[in-house]
Write a structure and sequence with these properties.
Layout (H helix, E strand, L loop, with lengths): L17 E5 L2 H4 L12 H6 L17 H15 L3 E5 L2 H4 L9 H16 L3 E7 L5 H4 L9 H16 L5 E6 L1 H10 L12 H22 L5 E7 L2 E3 L4 H16 L2 H6 L5 H6 L8 H5 L7 E6 L3 E5 L8 E3 L17 H14 L4 E6 L16 H19 L4 E7 L18 E3 L6 E3 L1 H12 L5
Parallel strand pairs: 1-2, 1-11, 2-3, 3-4, 4-5, 5-7, 6-8, 7-10, 10-11
Antiparallel strand pairs: 8-9, 12-13
Helix pairs in contact: 3-5, 7-9, 8-9, 14-15, 15-16
This protein binds the ligand N=[N+]=NCCCCNC(=O)[C@@H]1[C@H]2[C@H](O)[C@@H](O)[C@H](O)[C@@H](CO)[C@@H]12.
Protein backbone atom coordinates (compact mmCIF):
# COMPACT_ATOMS: atom_id res chain seq x y z
CA UNK A 1 0.00 0.00 0.00
CA UNK A 2 1.63 3.26 -1.08
CA UNK A 3 2.11 6.11 1.35
CA UNK A 4 -0.84 8.46 0.90
CA UNK A 5 0.18 12.02 -0.03
CA UNK A 6 0.80 13.99 3.17
CA UNK A 7 -0.77 17.27 2.07
CA UNK A 8 -4.56 17.14 2.27
CA UNK A 9 -6.24 20.11 0.71
CA UNK A 10 -6.75 23.05 3.06
CA UNK A 11 -7.94 25.84 0.77
CA UNK A 12 -10.92 25.14 -1.44
CA UNK A 13 -11.36 27.01 -4.75
CA UNK A 14 -14.57 28.77 -5.59
CA UNK A 15 -17.60 26.50 -5.75
CA UNK A 16 -18.73 28.42 -8.87
CA UNK A 17 -16.36 26.66 -11.27
CA UNK A 18 -15.63 22.95 -11.03
CA UNK A 19 -12.03 21.87 -11.34
CA UNK A 20 -12.06 18.14 -11.68
CA UNK A 21 -10.41 14.99 -12.89
CA UNK A 22 -12.14 12.20 -14.79
CA UNK A 23 -11.94 8.42 -14.99
CA UNK A 24 -14.16 5.50 -15.94
CA UNK A 25 -14.96 2.24 -14.20
CA UNK A 26 -13.43 -0.36 -16.50
CA UNK A 27 -10.32 1.75 -17.05
CA UNK A 28 -9.32 2.07 -13.38
CA UNK A 29 -11.24 -0.25 -11.04
CA UNK A 30 -9.96 -3.80 -11.63
CA UNK A 31 -11.73 -6.62 -9.74
CA UNK A 32 -14.35 -6.81 -12.50
CA UNK A 33 -16.17 -9.81 -10.98
CA UNK A 34 -15.72 -9.01 -7.28
CA UNK A 35 -18.56 -9.09 -4.76
CA UNK A 36 -21.21 -10.43 -7.07
CA UNK A 37 -20.51 -8.27 -10.11
CA UNK A 38 -21.37 -9.73 -13.51
CA UNK A 39 -19.05 -9.63 -16.55
CA UNK A 40 -19.21 -6.71 -18.97
CA UNK A 41 -18.53 -6.67 -22.72
CA UNK A 42 -15.13 -5.16 -21.96
CA UNK A 43 -14.26 -8.02 -19.60
CA UNK A 44 -15.00 -10.42 -22.43
CA UNK A 45 -13.42 -8.25 -25.17
CA UNK A 46 -10.16 -7.61 -23.29
CA UNK A 47 -9.84 -11.28 -22.41
CA UNK A 48 -10.27 -12.26 -26.06
CA UNK A 49 -6.81 -12.78 -27.58
CA UNK A 50 -5.83 -10.19 -30.19
CA UNK A 51 -8.32 -7.51 -29.19
CA UNK A 52 -6.10 -5.41 -26.89
CA UNK A 53 -2.44 -4.47 -27.35
CA UNK A 54 -0.02 -6.70 -25.41
CA UNK A 55 -3.00 -8.79 -24.24
CA UNK A 56 -3.69 -6.19 -21.53
CA UNK A 57 -6.96 -6.43 -19.60
CA UNK A 58 -8.84 -4.47 -16.93
CA UNK A 59 -8.61 -7.41 -14.53
CA UNK A 60 -6.44 -5.28 -12.19
CA UNK A 61 -6.14 -1.90 -13.99
CA UNK A 62 -5.31 0.71 -11.31
CA UNK A 63 -6.78 -1.54 -8.59
CA UNK A 64 -9.07 1.38 -7.71
CA UNK A 65 -11.81 -0.98 -6.51
CA UNK A 66 -9.53 -1.71 -3.54
CA UNK A 67 -7.52 1.54 -3.40
CA UNK A 68 -10.37 4.03 -3.83
CA UNK A 69 -9.74 5.64 -0.44
CA UNK A 70 -6.13 6.39 -1.41
CA UNK A 71 -7.31 7.89 -4.69
CA UNK A 72 -9.78 10.19 -2.92
CA UNK A 73 -6.85 11.40 -0.80
CA UNK A 74 -4.88 11.99 -4.01
CA UNK A 75 -7.73 14.10 -5.39
CA UNK A 76 -7.76 16.13 -2.18
CA UNK A 77 -3.99 16.61 -2.48
CA UNK A 78 -4.48 17.84 -6.06
CA UNK A 79 -7.08 20.30 -4.80
CA UNK A 80 -9.81 19.26 -7.21
CA UNK A 81 -13.35 20.20 -6.13
CA UNK A 82 -15.01 17.67 -8.44
CA UNK A 83 -14.49 14.11 -9.66
CA UNK A 84 -16.09 12.49 -12.69
CA UNK A 85 -16.35 8.72 -12.57
CA UNK A 86 -18.56 6.05 -14.10
CA UNK A 87 -20.54 3.23 -12.54
CA UNK A 88 -20.03 -0.30 -13.83
CA UNK A 89 -23.57 -1.35 -14.74
CA UNK A 90 -22.78 -5.04 -14.14
CA UNK A 91 -21.74 -4.36 -10.53
CA UNK A 92 -25.25 -2.99 -9.89
CA UNK A 93 -27.26 -5.38 -12.08
CA UNK A 94 -25.08 -8.45 -12.73
CA UNK A 95 -27.55 -9.73 -15.36
CA UNK A 96 -28.13 -6.22 -16.68
CA UNK A 97 -31.73 -6.19 -15.49
CA UNK A 98 -33.65 -7.51 -12.51
CA UNK A 99 -31.67 -8.50 -9.40
CA UNK A 100 -29.74 -5.66 -7.73
CA UNK A 101 -26.31 -6.47 -6.27
CA UNK A 102 -26.22 -4.51 -3.00
CA UNK A 103 -22.42 -4.84 -2.70
CA UNK A 104 -22.09 -2.95 -5.98
CA UNK A 105 -24.27 -0.11 -4.77
CA UNK A 106 -22.34 -0.06 -1.48
CA UNK A 107 -19.01 0.43 -3.28
CA UNK A 108 -20.21 3.53 -5.09
CA UNK A 109 -22.02 4.90 -2.07
CA UNK A 110 -18.80 4.67 0.00
CA UNK A 111 -16.87 6.37 -2.81
CA UNK A 112 -19.42 9.20 -3.08
CA UNK A 113 -19.53 9.72 0.69
CA UNK A 114 -15.73 9.90 0.85
CA UNK A 115 -15.71 12.48 -1.96
CA UNK A 116 -18.32 14.60 -0.22
CA UNK A 117 -16.36 14.44 3.05
CA UNK A 118 -13.44 16.04 1.16
CA UNK A 119 -15.66 18.71 -0.42
CA UNK A 120 -15.33 17.05 -3.83
CA UNK A 121 -18.44 17.19 -6.04
CA UNK A 122 -19.16 13.80 -7.65
CA UNK A 123 -20.19 13.74 -11.32
CA UNK A 124 -21.57 10.28 -12.08
CA UNK A 125 -21.53 8.83 -15.59
CA UNK A 126 -24.13 6.10 -15.89
CA UNK A 127 -22.59 4.45 -18.96
CA UNK A 128 -18.97 4.54 -20.04
CA UNK A 129 -18.87 1.63 -22.53
CA UNK A 130 -19.04 -1.42 -20.22
CA UNK A 131 -22.42 -2.98 -21.08
CA UNK A 132 -23.27 -6.11 -19.03
CA UNK A 133 -22.35 -9.16 -21.08
CA UNK A 134 -25.80 -10.61 -20.29
CA UNK A 135 -27.44 -7.77 -22.23
CA UNK A 136 -25.09 -8.07 -25.18
CA UNK A 137 -26.20 -11.69 -25.37
CA UNK A 138 -29.76 -10.35 -25.73
CA UNK A 139 -28.79 -8.02 -28.60
CA UNK A 140 -27.03 -5.27 -26.74
CA UNK A 141 -27.52 -1.71 -28.00
CA UNK A 142 -28.87 -3.12 -31.28
CA UNK A 143 -31.87 -4.44 -29.34
CA UNK A 144 -35.08 -2.40 -29.38
CA UNK A 145 -35.32 -3.19 -25.66
CA UNK A 146 -32.00 -1.50 -24.78
CA UNK A 147 -33.45 1.95 -23.92
CA UNK A 148 -35.74 0.31 -21.37
CA UNK A 149 -32.87 -1.67 -19.85
CA UNK A 150 -30.86 1.53 -19.50
CA UNK A 151 -33.71 3.58 -17.99
CA UNK A 152 -34.34 0.86 -15.38
CA UNK A 153 -30.63 0.72 -14.50
CA UNK A 154 -30.53 4.52 -14.24
CA UNK A 155 -33.55 4.50 -11.92
CA UNK A 156 -31.82 2.08 -9.53
CA UNK A 157 -28.90 4.50 -9.27
CA UNK A 158 -31.04 7.65 -9.06
CA UNK A 159 -32.88 6.10 -6.10
CA UNK A 160 -29.70 4.88 -4.44
CA UNK A 161 -27.50 7.97 -4.90
CA UNK A 162 -29.82 10.78 -5.98
CA UNK A 163 -29.75 12.27 -2.48
CA UNK A 164 -25.98 12.87 -2.64
CA UNK A 165 -25.00 13.00 -6.34
CA UNK A 166 -26.12 16.22 -8.03
CA UNK A 167 -24.41 15.93 -11.43
CA UNK A 168 -25.32 13.00 -13.67
CA UNK A 169 -24.33 12.03 -17.21
CA UNK A 170 -26.36 9.47 -19.11
CA UNK A 171 -23.92 8.30 -21.81
CA UNK A 172 -20.26 8.87 -22.40
CA UNK A 173 -19.57 9.50 -26.10
CA UNK A 174 -22.42 7.80 -27.96
CA UNK A 175 -20.44 8.39 -31.16
CA UNK A 176 -17.50 6.31 -29.95
CA UNK A 177 -19.84 3.64 -28.53
CA UNK A 178 -21.45 3.44 -31.98
CA UNK A 179 -18.48 3.91 -34.34
CA UNK A 180 -15.92 2.03 -32.21
CA UNK A 181 -18.19 -0.81 -31.14
CA UNK A 182 -20.36 -1.37 -34.22
CA UNK A 183 -18.81 0.25 -37.33
CA UNK A 184 -15.02 0.04 -37.06
CA UNK A 185 -14.99 -2.78 -34.50
CA UNK A 186 -11.92 -1.66 -32.53
CA UNK A 187 -13.94 -1.36 -29.31
CA UNK A 188 -16.30 -3.80 -27.57
CA UNK A 189 -18.42 -5.54 -28.73
CA UNK A 190 -16.24 -5.42 -31.88
CA UNK A 191 -18.94 -5.48 -34.59
CA UNK A 192 -18.38 -4.15 -38.11
CA UNK A 193 -21.80 -3.53 -39.59
CA UNK A 194 -22.93 -0.53 -41.63
CA UNK A 195 -26.56 -1.55 -41.11
CA UNK A 196 -26.33 -2.10 -37.35
CA UNK A 197 -24.56 1.23 -36.76
CA UNK A 198 -27.46 3.71 -37.25
CA UNK A 199 -29.78 1.36 -35.35
CA UNK A 200 -27.40 1.39 -32.37
CA UNK A 201 -27.07 5.17 -32.56
CA UNK A 202 -30.86 5.53 -32.56
CA UNK A 203 -31.22 3.23 -29.56
CA UNK A 204 -28.55 5.16 -27.66
CA UNK A 205 -30.45 8.38 -28.29
CA UNK A 206 -33.68 6.69 -27.14
CA UNK A 207 -31.79 5.42 -24.08
CA UNK A 208 -30.54 8.91 -23.25
CA UNK A 209 -34.09 10.28 -23.54
CA UNK A 210 -35.49 7.45 -21.40
CA UNK A 211 -32.85 7.94 -18.69
CA UNK A 212 -33.48 11.68 -18.71
CA UNK A 213 -37.22 11.11 -18.24
CA UNK A 214 -36.53 8.54 -15.54
CA UNK A 215 -34.32 11.05 -13.75
CA UNK A 216 -36.93 13.77 -13.94
CA UNK A 217 -39.46 11.39 -12.38
CA UNK A 218 -36.99 10.86 -9.51
CA UNK A 219 -36.43 14.60 -9.06
CA UNK A 220 -32.90 14.61 -10.48
CA UNK A 221 -32.22 18.12 -11.78
CA UNK A 222 -28.86 18.14 -13.53
CA UNK A 223 -28.48 15.42 -16.13
CA UNK A 224 -26.02 15.84 -18.98
CA UNK A 225 -24.79 14.06 -22.06
CA UNK A 226 -21.03 13.71 -22.68
CA UNK A 227 -19.93 13.85 -26.32
CA UNK A 228 -16.56 13.70 -28.01
CA UNK A 229 -16.38 16.78 -30.23
CA UNK A 230 -13.73 17.29 -32.87
CA UNK A 231 -13.87 20.50 -34.96
CA UNK A 232 -13.40 19.81 -38.67
CA UNK A 233 -11.44 22.20 -40.92
CA UNK A 234 -11.22 21.84 -44.73
CA UNK A 235 -7.75 21.07 -46.08
CA UNK A 236 -8.45 23.42 -49.00
CA UNK A 237 -11.21 25.82 -50.13
CA UNK A 238 -12.21 23.39 -52.86
CA UNK A 239 -15.89 22.41 -53.04
CA UNK A 240 -14.89 18.76 -52.59
CA UNK A 241 -12.98 19.38 -49.37
CA UNK A 242 -15.62 21.74 -47.98
CA UNK A 243 -18.32 19.15 -48.74
CA UNK A 244 -16.26 16.36 -47.19
CA UNK A 245 -15.68 18.51 -44.10
CA UNK A 246 -19.41 19.11 -43.68
CA UNK A 247 -20.01 15.35 -43.91
CA UNK A 248 -17.38 14.56 -41.30
CA UNK A 249 -18.70 17.34 -39.08
CA UNK A 250 -22.20 15.84 -39.28
CA UNK A 251 -20.84 12.33 -38.68
CA UNK A 252 -18.77 13.20 -35.60
CA UNK A 253 -20.21 16.36 -34.08
CA UNK A 254 -23.90 16.71 -35.06
CA UNK A 255 -25.13 13.10 -35.30
CA UNK A 256 -26.16 13.00 -31.60
CA UNK A 257 -26.48 16.64 -30.56
CA UNK A 258 -28.89 17.66 -33.33
CA UNK A 259 -31.49 15.00 -32.37
CA UNK A 260 -31.41 15.79 -28.64
CA UNK A 261 -31.53 19.57 -29.13
CA UNK A 262 -33.30 19.95 -32.49
CA UNK A 263 -35.32 16.72 -32.84
CA UNK A 264 -33.75 15.85 -36.18
CA UNK A 265 -30.71 14.06 -37.66
CA UNK A 266 -28.23 15.99 -39.80
CA UNK A 267 -29.25 15.80 -43.46
CA UNK A 268 -25.83 14.39 -44.35
CA UNK A 269 -26.47 11.12 -42.46
CA UNK A 270 -28.69 9.68 -45.20
CA UNK A 271 -25.97 10.40 -47.78
CA UNK A 272 -23.31 8.82 -45.57
CA UNK A 273 -25.24 5.62 -44.81
CA UNK A 274 -27.26 5.38 -48.03
CA UNK A 275 -29.66 2.45 -48.02
CA UNK A 276 -28.39 1.47 -44.55
CA UNK A 277 -30.00 4.63 -43.10
CA UNK A 278 -33.36 3.65 -41.55
CA UNK A 279 -36.61 5.50 -42.14
CA UNK A 280 -37.63 7.47 -39.01
CA UNK A 281 -41.17 8.75 -38.58
CA UNK A 282 -41.71 12.32 -37.34
CA UNK A 283 -42.86 10.97 -33.98
CA UNK A 284 -39.76 8.79 -33.69
CA UNK A 285 -37.57 11.81 -34.37
CA UNK A 286 -39.50 14.02 -31.99
CA UNK A 287 -39.06 11.37 -29.27
CA UNK A 288 -35.29 11.91 -29.54
CA UNK A 289 -35.63 15.55 -28.53
CA UNK A 290 -34.25 15.33 -24.97
CA UNK A 291 -32.06 18.35 -24.33
CA UNK A 292 -29.70 17.63 -21.44
CA UNK A 293 -29.28 20.15 -18.60
CA UNK A 294 -25.66 20.46 -19.72
CA UNK A 295 -23.37 19.20 -22.44
CA UNK A 296 -20.23 17.37 -21.37
CA UNK A 297 -17.57 18.18 -23.97
CA UNK A 298 -14.75 15.68 -24.37
CA UNK A 299 -12.13 17.52 -26.43
CA UNK A 300 -8.81 16.09 -27.54
CA UNK A 301 -8.00 17.33 -31.01
CA UNK A 302 -9.25 18.61 -34.33
CA UNK A 303 -9.22 17.23 -37.86
CA UNK A 304 -8.13 18.84 -41.13
CA UNK A 305 -10.27 17.16 -43.78
CA UNK A 306 -9.80 16.22 -47.40
CA UNK A 307 -12.34 14.54 -49.68
CA UNK A 308 -11.48 10.89 -50.23
CA UNK A 309 -14.03 8.54 -51.86
CA UNK A 310 -11.97 5.55 -50.71
CA UNK A 311 -12.59 6.44 -47.05
CA UNK A 312 -16.07 5.00 -46.43
CA UNK A 313 -18.70 5.61 -45.31
CA UNK A 314 -17.97 9.34 -44.96
CA UNK A 315 -15.89 9.92 -48.09
CA UNK A 316 -13.46 12.07 -46.13
CA UNK A 317 -10.22 11.57 -44.30
CA UNK A 318 -8.11 13.37 -41.76
CA UNK A 319 -4.95 14.96 -43.15
CA UNK A 320 -2.07 14.72 -40.66
CA UNK A 321 -0.58 18.15 -39.90
CA UNK A 322 3.04 16.99 -39.87
CA UNK A 323 4.42 20.43 -38.98
CA UNK A 324 2.49 20.53 -35.71
CA UNK A 325 2.99 18.67 -32.41
CA UNK A 326 1.10 15.43 -31.86
CA UNK A 327 0.38 13.32 -28.80
CA UNK A 328 1.28 9.65 -28.32
CA UNK A 329 -2.17 8.85 -29.80
CA UNK A 330 -1.02 10.68 -32.94
CA UNK A 331 -3.64 13.37 -32.28
CA UNK A 332 -2.64 16.90 -33.26
CA UNK A 333 -2.21 19.29 -30.34
CA UNK A 334 -4.58 22.11 -31.32
CA UNK A 335 -5.88 24.20 -28.38
CA UNK A 336 -7.77 26.66 -30.60
CA UNK A 337 -10.06 23.78 -31.54
CA UNK A 338 -11.38 23.76 -27.98
CA UNK A 339 -12.28 27.46 -28.18
CA UNK A 340 -13.84 26.94 -31.60
CA UNK A 341 -15.97 23.97 -30.58
CA UNK A 342 -17.23 25.70 -27.42
CA UNK A 343 -18.26 28.74 -29.48
CA UNK A 344 -19.89 26.40 -32.01
CA UNK A 345 -22.05 24.86 -29.29
CA UNK A 346 -22.93 28.34 -28.03
CA UNK A 347 -24.15 29.41 -31.46
CA UNK A 348 -25.84 26.21 -32.63
CA UNK A 349 -27.64 25.06 -29.46
CA UNK A 350 -28.43 28.32 -27.69
CA UNK A 351 -25.54 28.63 -25.23
CA UNK A 352 -26.42 25.65 -22.98
CA UNK A 353 -24.41 25.05 -19.79
CA UNK A 354 -21.21 23.17 -20.63
CA UNK A 355 -18.61 21.25 -18.69
CA UNK A 356 -15.39 20.18 -20.33
CA UNK A 357 -15.76 16.64 -19.05
CA UNK A 358 -12.55 15.36 -20.65
CA UNK A 359 -9.42 17.09 -21.91
CA UNK A 360 -5.90 15.71 -21.72
CA UNK A 361 -3.16 13.93 -23.61
CA UNK A 362 -1.10 10.79 -23.74
CA UNK A 363 2.62 11.28 -24.07
CA UNK A 364 5.52 8.88 -23.69
CA UNK A 365 6.37 10.15 -20.21
CA UNK A 366 9.92 9.89 -18.88
CA UNK A 367 10.37 7.44 -16.00
CA UNK A 368 10.05 8.76 -12.44
CA UNK A 369 13.37 10.00 -11.01
CA UNK A 370 13.87 10.67 -7.30
CA UNK A 371 10.14 10.75 -6.68
CA UNK A 372 9.34 13.20 -9.47
CA UNK A 373 8.00 12.68 -12.99
CA UNK A 374 8.67 15.59 -15.35
CA UNK A 375 5.90 15.28 -17.94
CA UNK A 376 6.62 18.63 -19.58
CA UNK A 377 4.53 17.95 -22.72
CA UNK A 378 1.42 17.27 -20.66
CA UNK A 379 1.99 20.45 -18.60
CA UNK A 380 2.18 22.43 -21.86
CA UNK A 381 -0.95 20.69 -23.20
CA UNK A 382 -2.94 21.54 -20.06
CA UNK A 383 -1.67 25.14 -19.95
CA UNK A 384 -2.58 25.87 -23.58
CA UNK A 385 -5.97 24.18 -23.36
CA UNK A 386 -6.92 25.97 -20.14
CA UNK A 387 -6.09 29.22 -21.94
CA UNK A 388 -8.29 28.09 -24.85
CA UNK A 389 -11.15 27.41 -22.43
CA UNK A 390 -10.60 30.85 -20.91
CA UNK A 391 -10.96 32.48 -24.35
CA UNK A 392 -14.36 30.82 -24.75
CA UNK A 393 -15.43 31.88 -21.24
CA UNK A 394 -14.55 35.48 -22.06
CA UNK A 395 -16.82 35.28 -25.12
CA UNK A 396 -19.81 34.31 -23.03
CA UNK A 397 -19.78 30.51 -23.23
CA UNK A 398 -21.59 29.15 -20.18
CA UNK A 399 -18.65 27.01 -19.13
CA UNK A 400 -19.23 25.53 -15.66
CA UNK A 401 -16.17 23.35 -15.18
CA UNK A 402 -13.12 21.51 -16.50
CA UNK A 403 -12.22 17.86 -15.89
CA UNK A 404 -8.73 16.70 -16.81
CA UNK A 405 -8.52 13.31 -18.48
CA UNK A 406 -7.31 11.48 -16.54
CA UNK A 407 -6.70 11.36 -12.81
CA UNK A 408 -4.62 8.19 -13.21
CA UNK A 409 -2.65 6.44 -15.92
CA UNK A 410 -5.16 3.75 -16.81
CA UNK A 411 -6.43 1.11 -19.27
CA UNK A 412 -6.65 2.92 -22.61
CA UNK A 413 -9.08 0.51 -24.28
CA UNK A 414 -7.57 -1.26 -27.29
CA UNK A 415 -4.17 0.29 -26.47
CA UNK A 416 -4.13 -1.28 -23.03
CA UNK A 417 -1.59 0.37 -20.72
CA UNK A 418 0.65 1.54 -23.57
CA UNK A 419 -0.90 5.02 -23.57
CA UNK A 420 -0.79 7.08 -20.40
CA UNK A 421 -3.07 10.12 -19.82
CA UNK A 422 -2.74 10.50 -16.06
CA UNK A 423 -1.95 13.48 -13.88
CA UNK A 424 -0.81 10.70 -11.59
CA UNK A 425 1.59 7.95 -12.62
CA UNK A 426 0.58 4.38 -11.80
CA UNK A 427 3.46 1.94 -11.54
CA UNK A 428 2.79 -0.97 -13.93
CA UNK A 429 4.02 -3.51 -11.37
CA UNK A 430 2.85 -2.44 -7.90
CA UNK A 431 0.36 0.27 -9.02
CA UNK A 432 1.92 2.75 -6.65
CA UNK A 433 0.67 6.25 -7.36
CA UNK A 434 3.02 9.23 -7.98
CA UNK A 435 1.74 12.72 -8.73
CA UNK A 436 3.39 13.95 -11.96
CA UNK A 437 4.52 17.52 -12.62
CA UNK A 438 1.26 17.92 -14.57
CA UNK A 439 -0.66 17.08 -11.40
CA UNK A 440 1.31 19.73 -9.51
CA UNK A 441 0.71 22.22 -12.33
CA UNK A 442 -3.02 21.48 -12.22
CA UNK A 443 -3.09 21.90 -8.44
CA UNK A 444 -1.38 25.29 -8.75
CA UNK A 445 -3.72 26.35 -11.58
CA UNK A 446 -6.74 25.51 -9.41
CA UNK A 447 -5.36 27.58 -6.54
CA UNK A 448 -4.56 30.49 -8.84
CA UNK A 449 -7.68 30.50 -11.04
CA UNK A 450 -10.28 29.07 -8.65
CA UNK A 451 -13.15 30.95 -10.26
CA UNK A 452 -12.33 29.64 -13.70
CA UNK A 453 -9.39 29.49 -16.16
N1 LIG B 1 -8.17 12.19 -34.00
N2 LIG B 1 -8.70 12.23 -33.02
N3 LIG B 1 -9.27 12.27 -32.15
C1 LIG B 1 -9.89 12.26 -30.98
C2 LIG B 1 -10.86 11.09 -30.93
C3 LIG B 1 -11.33 10.99 -29.56
C4 LIG B 1 -12.14 9.73 -29.42
N4 LIG B 1 -11.81 9.08 -28.14
C5 LIG B 1 -12.17 9.61 -27.01
O1 LIG B 1 -12.78 10.64 -26.96
C6 LIG B 1 -11.82 8.88 -25.75
C7 LIG B 1 -12.47 9.32 -24.56
C8 LIG B 1 -13.01 8.28 -23.59
O2 LIG B 1 -14.12 8.81 -22.87
C9 LIG B 1 -11.96 7.83 -22.57
O3 LIG B 1 -12.43 6.66 -21.92
C10 LIG B 1 -10.62 7.60 -23.26
O4 LIG B 1 -9.68 7.06 -22.35
C11 LIG B 1 -10.15 8.96 -23.78
C12 LIG B 1 -8.74 8.86 -24.38
O5 LIG B 1 -8.77 8.10 -25.56
C13 LIG B 1 -11.11 9.55 -24.76
Amino acid sequence: MSKPPTEIRSDSPSRDFLWGAATSAYQIEGSPLADGAGPSIWHRFANTPGRVLNGDTGDIACDHYRRWHEDVALMAALGVNAYRFSVAWARILPEGTGRVNQAGLDFYRCLVDALLEQGIEPMLTLYHWDLPEALDTRGGWASDASPGWFADYAQVLYRALGDRVRLWITLNEPWVITAGGYLYGDLAPGHRSLHETPIVAHNLLRAHAAALASGRAEGIERIGLAVNLEPQYPASPSAEDIGATAHRDAFINRWFLDPVFLGRYPAEMETIFGSAWPRHSPSELDALRAPPDFIGVNYYSRSVVRADPTEQPVGARRVRQDARPHTAMDWEVYPQGLTDILLWIQGRYGNPPVYITENGAAFDDPPPVAGRLHDRQRVAYLRTHLRAASRALRRGVDLRGYFAWSLLDNFEWSYGYAKRFGLVHVDPVDRQRLIKDSGRFYRDAIRRYGRGP
